[in-house]
Design a protein that fits this description.
Blueprint lengths: L5 E6 L14 H16 L3 E6 L2 H4 L3 H4 L4 H25 L4 E5 L8 E2 L2 H9 L3 E5 L9 H11 L4 E6 L4 E2 L11 E2 L1 E3 H6 L7 H9 L4 E5 L5 H6 L6 E4 L5
Parallel strand pairs: 1-2, 1-6, 2-5, 3-4, 3-5, 6-10, 9-11
Antiparallel strand pairs: 7-8, 10-11
């Protein structure tokens, strides 16, 4: 029995690249799509936000000399590419999917309209939110938080390369200690590298829990959705 009726899954662009430094690995995308499809089949309404780092990294050197607003818009377009790739894999599995873009591009995606997005979810479609918020200076973490609040998701599931939130980078420090639970305030005050501060503050202000878990462990999306103890829960300090 799923622990949540509606979730917002935040995937990094790097998760689409597999073992490569940038680009899209079709086999990795298919694997991600299968896990998301299994969660949807279990009755969970799933919204997804994918970052664009795997695409944007290929042009990052050139972007360093660009205007920040222009570079951010390029990053948003990268998320559209990833969203279409994930949508295609899901559709090939027979899973109804909608890509909704904050930047209007009618030929490839629906424009983001909150009520329409909720209706898609209620009909059992997976909704992939692309192009961030359409505004520069906001990360895809913040976009994911905004969409989660708008669609009234019960949790943000932040997929990473590590098992949760640690006191320091576990990929660099073997003695890093993992938190099983941590408050929004601790994340902000200790500058724990989880999500950007704007996203964490939005979750805190609206009491939206965040679950940070390891995406490289197959089946973790389902385990998280079923309420199993996976990764780290970030909350206000008072769990209902």
């Amino acid at each position: 029995m799923p622990a949540y009726q509606r979730i917002l899954l935040k995937l990094s662009g790097e998760s689409m690249a597999g073992g490569a430094s940038f680009g899209i690995d079709p086999h990795r995308v298919q694997g991600l799509a299968r896990e998301v499809a299994d969660v949807a089949a279990a009755g969970v309404q799933a919204g997804v936000v994918v970052g664009g780092g795997n695409i944007f990294r290929g042009v990052a050197a050139a972007a360093q000399k660009m205007d920040r607003v222009t570079a951010d818009h390029m990053g948003m377009l990268a998320t559209v590419i990833n969203s279409l790739a994930l949508s295609d894999s899901l559709e090939q599995m027979g899973i109804p999917t909608r890509v909704m873009s904050a930047i209007e591009m009618h030929q490839v995606a629906e424009p983001y309209i909150r009520r329409r997005a909720i209706r898609h979810l209620e009909k059992g479609r997976i909704v992939i939110f692309a192009a961030g918020t359409s505004n520069p200076y906001f990360s895809t973490d913040t976009a994911a938080t905004l969409r989660a609040l708008e669609i009234k998701a019960e949790v943000i599931a932040k997929a990473t390369r590590v098992d949760g939130v640690f006191d320091k980078d576990p990929l660099e420090y073997p003695d890093a200690i993992q938190y099983r639970e941590v408050t929004y305030l601790e994340v902000l005050s200790k500058a724990l590298a989880v999500m950007d501060a704007t996203a964490v503050a939005m979750c805190r202000d609206n009491n939206l829990p965040i679950i940070v878990f390891n995406l490289t462990t197959t089946g973790n999306i389902m385990r998280m959705s079923m309420g199993e103890s996976v990764g780290t829960v970030i909350h206000s300090g008072v769990l209902e």
